[in-house]
């Protein structure tokens, strides 16, 4: 029920911000379309804690802030290497453990890896992630496991 | 005065964003193979688009346009990694590219091979 309410609110906000027309006719059409999409989402059985992770609402902002600073640093690193050219990189592939308790946690972890320039999650198999990294340092930083700990912290 | 400051902030942010876009493009051209090039594209996906949208936001003022810019930013940050992952996964699982005459471009196969992907010498033949 809470998940349905969450889908409904998000869709309603998207509709309201994108519309800009607030007459009775258009608002009721908007309500109709939102209700229709919620119904479709229910039929597809995708309204659950995975598509609407409201249990993470309080913890996500802190994690996003940390991730954002990480993305900043990684961007600078890759930009410098782009200007220095191919001699500055050491591409490698490695498998990284992902010991999150839930699938959602592993997906958040893999997405965070991809979102950080310099590392891309290529495959997610069981509880390991195959990662391609632009540099050996990038891969060993993932191996140090700080990001993994933080994602696990989200779940607790 | 305040208008000037806002214009300056958004100008600096836009300029930095453009510089990062340029760096991403440079990396895309200079890096040796598909996977490393994807990392260069990661710059334009994340910080560059973030800076450009943040540079546009002060110009939009408190309006619906601001909310729409925010939504664009959110969508980029959610779809970007999904697309990158799909590309990387397809590249790793897929066969080397098909050439028009049915022959595989040997150069491409070699370069991908250097990124630790095992490619059998004649697996490229179709």
Overview of this structure, please?
The complex is a heterodimer of chains A (156) and B (126). In chain A, 61% of the residues lie in helices and 12% in strands. With 156 residues, chain A is an alpha+beta fold. Chain A has 2 domains: 2-43; 56-155, Ribosomal Protein S8, Chain: A, domain 1, CATH 3.30.1370. Chain B is an all-alpha fold and 126 residues long. Chain B has a domain at 2-80. Chain B contains 4 helices and no strands. In chain B, α2 (34-60) packs antiparallel against α3 (64-93). The interface between A and B is medium-sized, with 33 and 35 residues.
Reconstruct the topology from this structure:
The complex is a heterodimer of chains A (156) and B (126).
Chain A: H1 2-19, H2 24-43, H3 60-84, E1 92-97, H4 103-115, E2 119-125, E3 128-133, H5 136-144, H6 146-155
Antiparallel strand pairs in A: 1-3, 2-3
Helix pairs in contact in A: 1-2, 4-6
Chain B: H1 2-30, H2 34-60, H3 64-93, H4 106-114
Helix pairs in contact in B: 1-2, 2-3
For this entry, give a set of tags.
heterodimer, A: alpha+beta, 12% strand, B: 126 residues, mainly alpha
Low-pLDDT parts of chain B are: 109-126
Q: What does the largest sheet of chain A look like?
A: 3 strands, antiparallel
Uncertain stretches of chain A: none
Number of strands of chain A: 3
CATH level-1 class of the largest domain in chain A? Alpha Beta
Q: How many strands, which pairing sense, and closed or not: the largest β-sheet of chain B?
A: none
Tally of DSSP β-strands of chain B: 0
The SSE string of chain B, one letter per element, is HHHH
Outline type of chain A: elongated
- Chains forming the largest contact: A-B, 33 and 35 residues
Secondary-structure-derived class of chain A: alpha+beta
Beta-strand percent range of chain B: under 5%
Order of secondary-structure elements of chain A: HHHEHEEHH
Transmembrane segments (chain B): 6-29, 41-60
Keywords (chain B): Membrane, Transmembrane, Transmembrane helix
Pfam family, one (chain B): PhaG_MnhG_YufB
Protein name (chain B): Multicomponent Na+:H+ antiporter subunit G
């Amino acid at each position: 029920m809470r998940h349905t309410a969450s889908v409904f609110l998000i869709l309603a906000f998207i509709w309201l911000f994108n519309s800009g027309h607030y007459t009775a006719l258009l608002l009721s059409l908007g309500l109709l379309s939102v209700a229709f999409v919620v119904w479709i989402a229910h039929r597809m059985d995708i309204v659950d804690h995975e598509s609407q992770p409201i249990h993470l609402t309080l913890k996500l902002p802190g994690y996003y802030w940390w991730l954002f600073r990480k993305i900043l640093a990684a961007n600078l690193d890759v930009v410098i290497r782009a200007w220095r050219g191919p001699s500055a990189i050491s591409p490698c592939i490695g498998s990284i453990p992902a010991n999150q308790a839930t699938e959602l946690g592993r997906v958040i972890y893999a997405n965070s890896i991809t979102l950080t320039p310099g590392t891309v999650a290529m495959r997610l198999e069981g509880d390991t992630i195959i990662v391609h990294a632009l540099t050996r340092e990038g891969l060993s930083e993932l191996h140090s496991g700080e990001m993994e700990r933080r994602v696990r912290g989200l779940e607790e | 005065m305040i208008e000037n400051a806002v214009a300056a902030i958004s100008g600096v942010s836009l300029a930095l964003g453009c510089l990062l876009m340029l760096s991403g493009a440079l990396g895309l051209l200079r890096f040796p193979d598909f996977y490393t090039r994807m990392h260069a594209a990661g710059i334009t996906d994340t910080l560059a688009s973030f800076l450009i949208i943040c540079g546009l936001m002060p110009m939009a003022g408190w309006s619906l346009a601001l909310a729409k810019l925010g939504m664009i930013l959110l969508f980029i940050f959610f779809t970007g990694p999904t697309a990158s992952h799909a590309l990387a996964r397809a590249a790793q699982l897929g066969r080397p590219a098909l050439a028009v005459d049915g022959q595989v471009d040997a150069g491409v196969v070699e370069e991908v091979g250097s990124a630790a992907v095992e490619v059998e010498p004649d697996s490229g033949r179709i």
